[in-house]
Automatic annotation (TrEMBL):
Domain Response regulatory: 3-116
Name of the protein this chain belongs to: Response regulator transcription factor
Transmembrane feature ranges: none
InterPro entries per the UniProt record, alphabetical: CheY-like_superfamily, OmpR/PhoB-type_DNA-bd, Sig_transdc_resp-reg_C-effctor, Sig_transdc_resp-reg_receiver, WalR-like, WH-like_DNA-bd_sf
Location of the OmpR/PhoB-type domain: 130-229
Positions of modified residues (4-aspartylphosphate): 52
UniProt keyword terms in alphabetical order: DNA-binding, Phosphoprotein, Transcription, Transcription regulation, Two-component regulatory system
SMART domains: REC (SM00448), Trans_reg_C (SM00862)
Pfam families named in the record: Response_reg (PF00072), Trans_reg_C (PF00486)
Length: 230
């Protein structure tokens, strides 16, 4: 049974989402501040965090950064409005997805299940390949889900790993943002391309020597992204 940590300061929203997610089969721990959420994670890890951005004290952006700095736990942020600045800042802080308030329980449930599907396994349509792959200085072990550079393991969040696996499965092939939304985020025409762009930025910061001059994840302006050629 998936364990959800809900960090939300509005009691009505917190209680409503806790009841709805519990009814849908999740074990839900609900707290009202970021500090409480981080303390809860330290003692009782969850499978996914649902995080309000506008929290008293430590805001959701800082909570997101701290969670992401310590591991690859999936994070879905709740934002009060579909504001470009808030959404992009949250994604750049390390969130995997977002839901705009008022959050409908069935939408949040779908996003939770989608992000949990992305925490492991192969991209759809890609079978496991024997042995680690070498791409320049980067080594990708698809079966072990381990990425390393110069022999040092790189810690990637689940969505970052899925994105890298999807792109590197066909080096040189250009994939549009829409294709990546469907294969990595399980989102069709309602998906938000900002999810892709923010995740690419985070991935580049971890695997590239110079994120401003990417070698592995390249942009083809007007078309999308490709892996290599190296």
């Amino acid at each position: 049974m998936p364990r959800v940590l809900l960090i939300e300061d509005d009691q009505a929203v917190r209680d409503g989402l806790r009841l709805a997610l519990t009814y849908q089969g999740h074990t839900v721990e609900a707290v009202e501040t970021g500090e409480e959420g981080l303390a809860r994670l330290a003692g009782d890890p969850a499978d996914v965090v649902v995080l309000d951005l506008m929290l008293p004290g430590m805001d959701g952006f800082e909570v997101c950064r701290r969670i992401r700095a310590s591991g690859d736990l999936p994070i879905i942020m709740l934002t009060a409005r579909n504001d470009d600045i808030d959404v992009v800042a949250g994604l750049e802080a390390g969130a995997d997805d977002y839901v705009v308030k008022p959050a409908q329980a069935r939408v949040l449930e779908a996003r939770i299940r989608a992000v949990l599907r992305r925490t492991g396994g192969e991209p759809r349509g890609q079978g496991p390949k024997p042995g680690p792959e070498r791409h320049g200085d980067l080594t990708i072990d698809r079966e072990g889900l381990v990425v390393s550079k110069h022999g040092t393991v790189i810690g990637l969040a689940p969505t970052e790993l899925r994105l890298l696996l999807e792109l590197s499965a066909s080096p040189g092939r250009v994939l549009s943002r829409q294709q990546l939304l469907e294969s990595v985020w399980d989102q069709g025409y309602l998906g938000d391309s900002r999810l892709v762009d923010a995740c690419v930025q985070r991935l580049r910061s971890k695997i590239e020597d110079d994120a401003a001059k990417p070698v592995y994840v390249q942009t083809l302006r007007g078309f999308g992204y490709r892996f290599g050629p190296l």
